[in-house]
Amino acid sequence: MTYSIVHSESQEDWASWDDFLNKSSRGIYLQTEDWLKSYSSYGFSSSLILAKTEGGEILGGIGAVLAKTGPFKVLVCPYGPIIKEGQEHLIEELVDEFLRVGKRQGAFLVQLSTPFSSNPISPHTYSFVKDYPGRRVPSGRGIPFKFVIGVSAFRAVHLFPKEADAYEKIRKHYKASTRRDVNKSQRMGNELQFANSLDDIKAAYSLIELNAVNQGYSVRSWSEFGSTLVSLVNKGLCHIVTCVNEGELKGALVIFDVGNKLHYIMGATLREKKDLMVGHFLQDQVIQFGVSTGYDFYDISMGGSEGVVRFKKGFGGEELGMEEPYYWVLKPWLFWTYQKLMPWVQRNKKFISRLLSKK
Questions:
Q1: Contact 170/291 with Cβ under 8 angstroms?
Q2: Burial 285-297 (b: 16+ CB within 10 A, else e)
Q3: Strands 109-112, 72-77: parallel, antiparallel or unpaired by DSSP?
Q4: Region for 98 from its dihedrals, namely left if φ exceeds 0, alpha if ψ lies in -120 to 50, beta otherwise
Q5: Does the predicted model carry a pTM greater than 0.70?
Q6: What is the Cα–Cα distance from 244 to 191, expressed in whole angstroms?
Q7: Which end of the chain is more exposed for a tag (fewer CB within 10 A), N or C?
Q8: In degrees rounded to 5, what are phi and psi of residue 187?
């Protein structure tokens, strides 16, 4: 099969790439056009490196973000390459081109998070037998640039596709206390709704922003991220799942629906005197929705405080780690300067994010 490796920013290729991601079980939200272009609010740019046949079929690719401020430029792939099954030989060529693009764009650092796993969920993730992708030996492993990152692991709640008693099997993996609280949540008058209109999506995200302020963590503001969410919902690549009780919004989850799997990335519930078990209600409803789609698993995600992680573990799920990311240093003196500045950058991350978003 004749193919070529191309570096592209064309809208036609972005549309084809999203379609490829959505149809492939190896696809993921981290590579969609809207997700990558959402970093433009910080003055960053994005582009594609694709392997395409003469007829225009995509065989694989890398979606990349060029992060830049002053002389510092970093080319990052938060998760890739995404390769059509049976075309794994393209990994080396795509990574080589990724490095060449970084060099042409003046990056001092190129960083790649991969779908490689020693404990893969086939075909979503897969093993990689070589020491490193591409022909050039990496400078190291890890995440020296932390402003555009991927996922280090999934907490995969297996959905038992095509099995008639799938939901019952999943519930057997819930902790006893989680099953009890889910049952209780279903007697509280909670109602599941999907936010599809601009006003409903904004209201749901406002709840997430409020929760972030109250709990002392950061999320991107509506002005930075709102248009991304609306576009993803309109394309069917994201669901804003909400809980309404007596006509009032009580909780919301952001769920990505790409590559025949679901990913939870953020959410919030109102903390009130009467506990309506909204978190239990919403997560269980998403799992039931996942069963109805016939997907393989729901990634309930790994992060959060000790209490949040304990809550997620209550729904079962298998921890599936990714291989540690690779990075290549292209300009050692700028990398050295960057490393010296990093302690200050980390202490002032919120200020820098606000500064970049004003560009």
A1: yes
A2: bbbebbbeeebbb
A3: parallel
A4: alpha
A5: yes
A6: 5
A7: N
A8: -105, 5
